[in-house]
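// run 5 | inverse folding | seed 20
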């Protein structure tokens, strides 16, 4: 039976886009705004940044590293049931964290259990729209993944408001209830039927296999051996491995702003609310950038666009805490003198204040405000990191094909997860050692920039390999043709010899 083409729309196709969007709003919104709890955990459990940041690293690490598990569950159980199971696990992780007696318990609940749930629901929603759409895939992927940025923009201020209204434990229970609602959106992932027409898609049971199985003509679901066998073969594919190593380096630094921007803001002299707004601004700038990049990816080379954004993203992270000093230097403003003068103003009489105040207000304007420097950074990071989230799936599909997307993306998430385990604790312990986030941000910024630089040669490598195969194939063809000709000549000679022998035998008789 011929495999039907992806419908590229239809009622259930667009419902899948809505469900994927809301899944990103809830799942990614909770995960990327979880760093707001870091100062609260440090205060309540009396521990350092290194210990507390390990919670975020485990959470994001398990989220991405659970890719192979999510891939197997998606192939066996389908998009719906996999999403429901993941949503329940994520909700349970948040609720259990509310009764955590120690940081080590949070490693299990907020780190492992919550991360596992978020990881399980991450792959099926992206796989669903990948299988439902072909020509419109970049556009709908951009729309759906915008939910991640909007979720961060909503959940970060919401979490701050809840923390001001309630205890952090009650706040975690509320977030757990929000995560549970994702079960409803998971039911909107209608499996593609074995046959379809342009007007309708038939109903399937919740536990049926997903579109990958059905589009193969009703074949049986992949077994664990087949799934992991294909992943093993991917490890021998140079294009996949180069892309996986790049993703590993990117993932070392990707969670750093979401984890440490709120705490870094406090150490720069900003308020907790300003720190939460900075995280929210990452989300909204990320959202706008995804729409723009989604449109550009249909006009420009996706790989080039992806690489360039990563390089810029890494550079901005490396100098994130130096934007304000650089602005002061560019505009020749002595912020140290301005602060000293501002301190002396209360001691002056009212007349002196009237004379000096305009000068001080100009001097201590935005050029000396660390909040302005952080605003520049988070917006730059939000825009450029959008390429990592949006274009990773598209570039992967371009490199390996949609038929290998589920397993290749699942394996790629494993690389991302391992890196995410490493990044935040390294920066956290560097802060405990140096008393500043500057060194950690610099290191992780270099990793992200390097991850983009290393992918630029891929088109050249492909061209070289293609040109290298053509002469070899031609020579092999010529040699094979020569061998065939030799065999034909030998056969004709042998036939003539046998004919002469048979004539002699007849004459003798």
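// decoded
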């Amino acid at each position: 039976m011929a495999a039907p083409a992806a419908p590229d729309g239809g009622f259930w196709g667009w419902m899948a886009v809505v469900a994927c969007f809301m899944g990103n709003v809830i799942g990614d919104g909770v995960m990327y705004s979880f760093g707001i709890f870091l100062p609260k955990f440090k205060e309540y459990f009396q521990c350092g940044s290194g210990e507390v940041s390990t919670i975020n690293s485990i959470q994001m690490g398990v989220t991405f590293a659970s890719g192979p598990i999510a891939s197997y569950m998606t192939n066996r159980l389908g998009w719906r049931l996999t999403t429901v199971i993941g949503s329940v696990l994520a909700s349970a992780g948040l609720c259990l964290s509310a009764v955590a007696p120690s940081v080590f318990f949070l490693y299990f609940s907020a780190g492992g259990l919550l991360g596992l749930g978020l990881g399980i629901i991450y792959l099926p929603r992206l796989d669903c729209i990948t299988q439902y759409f072909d020509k419109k895939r970049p556009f709908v992927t951009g729309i759906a993944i915008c939910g991640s940025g909007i979720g961060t923009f909503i959940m970060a201020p919401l979490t701050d408001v809840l923390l001001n209204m309630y205890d952090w434990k009650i706040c975690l229970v509320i977030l757990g209830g929000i995560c549970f609602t994702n079960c409803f959106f998971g039911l909107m992932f209608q499996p593609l039927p074995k046959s379809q027409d342009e007007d309708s898609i038939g109903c399937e049971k919740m536990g049926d296999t997903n579109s990958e199985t059905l589009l193969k003509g009703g074949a049986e679901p992949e077994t664990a051996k087949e799934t992991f066998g294909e992943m093993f073969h991917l490890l021998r594919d140079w294009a996949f491995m180069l892309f996986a190593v790049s993703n590993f380096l990117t993932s070392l630094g990707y969670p750093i702003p979401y984890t440490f921007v709120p705490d870094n803001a406090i150490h720069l002299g900003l308020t907790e609310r300003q720190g939460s707004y900075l995280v929210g601004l990452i989300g909204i700038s990320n959202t706008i950038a995804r729409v723009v990049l989604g449109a550009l990816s249909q006009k420009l080379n996706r790989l080039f666009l992806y690489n360039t954004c990563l390089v810029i993203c890494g550079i901005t992270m490396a100098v994130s805490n130096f934007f304000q000093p650089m602005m002061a230097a560019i505009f020749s403003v002595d912020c140290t003198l301005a602060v000293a003068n501002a301190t002396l103003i209360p001691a002056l009489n009212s007349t002196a204040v009237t004379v000096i105040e305009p000068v001080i207000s100009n001097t201590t304007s935005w050029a000396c405000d660390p909040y302005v420097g952080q605003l520049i950074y988070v917006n730059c990071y939000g825009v450029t990191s959008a390429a990592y989230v949006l274009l990773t799936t598209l570039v992967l599909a371009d490199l390996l094909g949609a038929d290998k997307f589920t397993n290749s993306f699942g394996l790629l998430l494993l690389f991302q997860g391992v890196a995410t385990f490493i990044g935040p604790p390294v920066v956290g312990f560097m802060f405990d050692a140096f008393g500043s986030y500057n060194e950690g941000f610099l290191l992780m910024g270099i990793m992200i920039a390097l991850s983009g630089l290393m992918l630029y040669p891929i088109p050249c490598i492909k061209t070289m390999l293609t040109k290298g195969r053509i002469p070899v194939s031609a020579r092999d063809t010529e040699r094979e043709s020569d061998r065939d000709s030799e065999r034909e000549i030998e056969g004709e000679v042998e036939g003539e010899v046998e004919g002469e022998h048979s004539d002699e035998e007849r004459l003798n008789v």
